[in-house]
Amino acid sequence: MSDVLALPIFKQEDSSLPSENETKHPPFQYVLCAATSPAVKLHDETLTYLNQGQSYEIRMLDNRKIGDLPEVSGKTVKSIIRVVFHDRRLQYTEHQQLEGWKWNRPGDRLLDLDIPLSVGIIDPRTNPAQLNTVEFLWDPSKRTSAFIQVHCISTEFTPRKHGGEKGVPFRIQIDTFKENENGEYTDHLHSASCQIKVFKPKGADRKQKTDREKMEKRTPQEKEKYQPSYETTILTEMRLEPIIEDAVEHEQKKSSKRTLPADYGDSLAKRGSCSPWPDNAYVNNSPTTTPAFTPTQHSTYSVPDSNSSSPNHQGEVIAQGSGEVSCFCFLFFSIIL
């Protein structure tokens, strides 16, 4: 990624937010159906443990007030889901880290959509050149759930001397765009993310149990310093902070903008099961700016509003965008010659 966001600004409770934020209302809310760790201090961001390769539901919720973003009503928006590094040290070397992972795991992806389980997503796509990214269209007025699978584990990006629970944290990041006058989804609407760690199968359940047992042994006074374990993980809003870098380095990375949280939210559950859909839940928000993203043309394939999709649809993803830099270079050199 070529850009990194501002550091998180965490707040203990919604009531402490400044009054000016009360007039700002995030248009969307994304809820990951997985429980947060109970071993997180009050002023820290929530942390959620996931099992490698397991399908987890992300609920895509329309959080607009009446009259907000009328241009989106009755239309679809595009959401891009990514798994990115939480630590800045790894953010600056993300391209190299992912290339190394690709070399060790040929043919595998860091992130996949479980299309048969997903509901309401339209034209889901993956790009072979972006192993940590999936995208799709969805109608905010309809029930939409995207089931994702994370295939990398946190310890794959740590030195060999580390292991077990010493794995690096990741972020699940969602950026949503609306259609512009040319029919391209480039107008940024909203971004949010949450912090996760990924374990080998069943490892997340064991880690959650270990954290819970540790908290049970603490005194009541010590417990007051920690957050409860929320049943679901609410992705929190982010703002963009551009990073100026060498043009050559940017060309080598060939990556899009990065976002990190502006504040923290709540979070849930086991194995992708979720409590009933919330009618409306508040999420802290902060200013966002339009990130650079290359639009693509979309086919008419969609996932129906049920889980009756055929597993064969998983292969119906379309690569896009990977040849744009080479096309530009070709035109550039053609002009010179």
From TrEMBL:
Keywords (A to Z) from UniProt: DNA-binding, Nucleus
InterPro entries referenced in this protein's UniProt entry, alphabetically: CP2 (IPR007604), TF_CP2-like (IPR040167)
Alphabetical list of PROSITE patterns matching this protein: GRH_CP2_DB
Location of the region described as Disordered in the Swiss-Prot/TrEMBL record: 201-227, 249-314
Domain Grh/CP2 DB, chain residue ranges per copy: 24-260
Subcellular location: Nucleus
Positions with biased composition (Polar residues): 282-313
Listed Basic and acidic residues bias regions: 202-226
PANTHER family cross-referenced by the UniProt entry: TRANSCRIPTION FACTOR CP2, UPSTREAM-BINDING PROTEIN 1
This protein's name: Upstream binding protein 1
Organism: Latimeria chalumnae (Coelacanth)
